[in-house]
Amino acid sequence: MNNDVCYVAVDPGKNGGIAAIFNSVVVLTEVMPVQDKYYLPGDIVKIFENLQGTYGTVIVTVEDVHSLFTVSAKSNFQFGFGAGLVEGVCTGMKLPFVKVHPKKWQEYAWQGIHPILIDTGKLTPQGGKKYKTDTKATSLIAAQRLFPQVDMTKSARAKKAHEGIVDALLIAYYASKTR
Hints:
single chain; about 180 residues; alpha/beta; two-stranded antiparallel sheet; 5 helices; about 40% helix; about 25% strand; globular
């Protein structure tokens, strides 16, 4: 881990988020800049410029998105578009960026956490209930454990943690500990 680097992480979905960690301290949490369903690349540039101006060296980690079977083609396209937009902003600003697969950062950030399981409504070949990991709930528990002092809500009026901010925090944590 390099303490002179500000690790910025982006969950690139339209309901995504941006988080930054410098010297093991969370210095930024933001929702993905979107207005009327359109990304605001100028706002992303401003966020990155402000971090560069304050912390100097910035490395961006972007969630490596892929097509999801249970998600519509339109949503898959928009998610990929968001990731490409962030990569383009980084390239234009000459900011180094890396991609990380969700399973990789989740495995690291979820250490010591018992995954939350949800019933799929299906049966195993042996006739028992089939479960899958609730990634959002498990990530929230991990983020609250790692960053109990950080407000993960979208705004002062929001009551629930914002999924994009939670994921961005965990991606930033992963990047800050493994780079």
